[in-house]
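Annex B. Sample input.
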Amino acid sequence: MPEFIVRRLVGTLPVLAVVTVFVFLMLRLIPGDPAAVIAGDNASPEQIELIREKLGLNEAIWSQFGIWITHLFQGNLGESFFFKRTVAELIEQRIEPTLALAFCTLIIAIAVAVPIGVLAAYRQGTAFDRIVMILSVIGFSVPGFVVGYGMIYVFSITLNLLPVQGYVRLHDDVLGSLRHLVLPSLTLSVGFIALISRMTRAAVIEVLKEDYIRTARAKGLSDKIILIRHALRNAAVPVLTIIGTSVAVLMGGVVVTETVFGLPGIGRLTVEAVLSRDFPTIQAIILMFSVVYVLINLLIDILYTICDPRIRL
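Annex B, continued. Sample output.
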């Protein structure tokens, strides 16, 4: 197992290197000038040029890249062009709402989608199965911001049960923080519930056709034991795959959801950084998301070996 983890970690280094180069070049090759955004509409060309010189944007691209990489290896993510603070401070300030939202979303999605998918597979062809399939198509097709505004109208405006926007930090008020996370988490989890439930249903249906399932039934095992101990465990690999892949979708969904609900998280910081052409902040956030995605996929690979020991070979 340790050798497997080391090999997977070494294999992620080229991926992170490619992502680093791609993000750096992409930001500097697309149209737009951070100096012009900072200077404002009424700034003269001389003022814009002075800002570019101060920010180091007049240097050659590879020189800028070398400086950034050098600072990155020293643990320095740079200083924000727009916010006039270090990027590390900005991320530290905004990371809690994003982590809380992502964690709650995954918990809700997995807790709801997996049982629904297993039950739909067990009752394949019944009315329950058809309803689950219809709802999953709708849930995966409707944009997140539409779901968010619908949630706000029903639970906040009509029923006045939950707050519309804002966030309370966990160390200040745990219950208040959870109340502010309910609507964003439900909104973001709708698409994941649809995706994971469909994949779980398909995987369990395939497993239920296997000979060992018929043998288990012939031995008199209950349906509950067959579904949980045999069917679900052997269908876990594709389900884990889709959960790991969903993390990439979750990162994109966080941006929209935090903007809709006014959460001061990394997603909202990303929008602000993109609008202000804040290169250091955008680079650090995308690199952080890439590292998180790689580590979660490594965790999924480790879980593969637990669910199916043959994968170690």
